[in-house]
């Protein structure tokens, strides 16, 4: 197994470019992006999360106890409340959540996830994005060949590969070269 770690850029345009490096043919993406304190202060935040799940046909809206990104603990258990479909809300979503989006989803695949997340990153949402290429014959994101993870919480970009499951560093060369071209500094894992 190999790992490379880079500093996550501070500019949202560069973060969006890092997301763009994720190959569209990869297996799935997980993500949880939150509205920032600036959103809470300058826009109406609805307290509603939109979630896309690998085993659901359409997105699910839930009322939630999200906090601004700067106050969030990524490991905190969030409370979700059912959201009546007939109910409407005003303002911006408090967060977006993706769970294994791309697994068994010909339409909501990694390319779809990238477009969706790019829109939220453009608006300034922050959090974690984790995309993987699964090993042949596996449907579990823990058994991946290659992965890229962006985290505003750690301010790092993690790239790793697992040779036991078919991952190769050379398969990630386009991502690695792209990060270097963006001027991201490599740090010791």
Summarize the structure in words.
- With 189 residues, the protein is of the alpha+beta class.
- The chain has one domain (2-187).
- The chain has 4 helices and 10 strands; from the N terminus they run E-H-E-H-E-E-E-E-H-E-E-E-H-E.
- The protein has a 10-stranded mixed β-sheet, with helices on one face.
- Helix 1 runs antiparallel to helix 3 (110-122).
- The mean pLDDT is 91.
Which features characterize this protein?
single chain, 189 residues, alpha+beta, 31% strand
What secondary-structure arrangement, pairings included, does this model have?
Layout: E1 2-7, H1 12-20, E2 28-34, H2 37-42, E3 48-53, E4 60-64, E5 80-82, E6 95-101, H3 110-122, E7 126-134, E8 144-151, E9 156-161, H4 173-181, E10 186-187
Parallel strand pairs: 3-6
Antiparallel strand pairs: 1-9, 1-10, 2-6, 2-7, 3-4, 4-5, 7-8, 8-9
Please tell me the overall pLDDT: 91
Rg: 17 Å
Report low-confidence residues grouped into runs of 5 or more. Answer: none
- Give the helix tally: 4
> Based on helices, strands and strand pairing, what is the structural class?
alpha+beta
Spatial separation of the terminal alpha carbons: 13 Å
Using DSSP, what is the number of strands? 10
**Portion in helices:** 10-25%
Largest sheet: 10 strands, mixed
Q: What's the multimeric state?
A: single chain
Q: Going across the biggest sheet, name each strand in turn.
A: 5-4-3-6-2-7-8-9-1-10
């Amino acid at each position: 197994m190999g790992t490379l770690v880079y500093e996550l850029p501070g500019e949202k345009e560069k973060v969006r470019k890092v997301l763009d490096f994720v190959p569209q043919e990869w297996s799935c993406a997980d993500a949880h992006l939150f509205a920032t304190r600036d959103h809470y202060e300058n826009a109406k935040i609805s307290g509603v999360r939109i979630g896309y799940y690998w085993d659901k046909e359409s997105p699910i809206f839930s009322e939630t106890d999200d906090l601004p990104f700067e106050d969030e603990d990524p490991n905190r258990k969030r409370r979700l409340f059912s959201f009546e479909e007939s109910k409407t809300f005003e303002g911006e979503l408090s967060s977006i959540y993706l769970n294994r989006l791309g697994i068994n989803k010909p339409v909501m695949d990694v390319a779809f996830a990238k477009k969706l997340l790019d829109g939220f990153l453009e608006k300034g949402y922050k959090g974690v994005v984790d995309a993987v290429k699964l090993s042949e014959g596996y449907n579990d994101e823990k058994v991946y060949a290659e992965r890229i993870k962006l985290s505003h919480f750690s301010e790092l970009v993690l790239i790793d590969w697992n040779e036991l499951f078919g991952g190769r560093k050379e398969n990630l060369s386009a991502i690695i070269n792209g990060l270097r071209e963006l001027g991201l500094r490599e740090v010791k894992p």
